[in-house]
Fold this protein.
Amino acid sequence: MGKMQETEKGVISPELIFLDQKMSNQEDVIQFIVKKAASSNYVSNAAELYAAVKKREAEVSTAIGYDIAIPHGKTTAVTQPFIAFLRVQEAFRWAQSNEENVRLIFLIGVPQESENKLHLKFISQLSKRLLNDEFREKLITEIDPNKIFEQLSSIEI
């Protein structure tokens, strides 16, 4: 009678961890991650998620200091919540509206009808962990995506 359960992918997955990318602006980073999330079936419409993330970014920059930005978007185009991580080779200025340079980017996609406040919980937990110098240092220096995955998976949400 019931449908077969679809395999649940984790919110954080190794396929959405990208290290040492050669990008130097917000648009390229967001477009890259959104396309990858779409090709991994987290997103049904990449352009719609991109627009949602950019709209949120226009309200207030998501650069939070410590070389980190946490852009996020909430839209029906997100079929499954996800958190992607991208590290660029060289830090760059995230937004014209502030001076923050960014090297570590966490992009969060949340379905429109999401009951839980996944992105807010993750931002809160991540922010606490990022105060730890050792935690940040690992995100900057680790070259194995699987170790980054393990590190991020240890964040409770």
The longest helix spans residues 26-39.
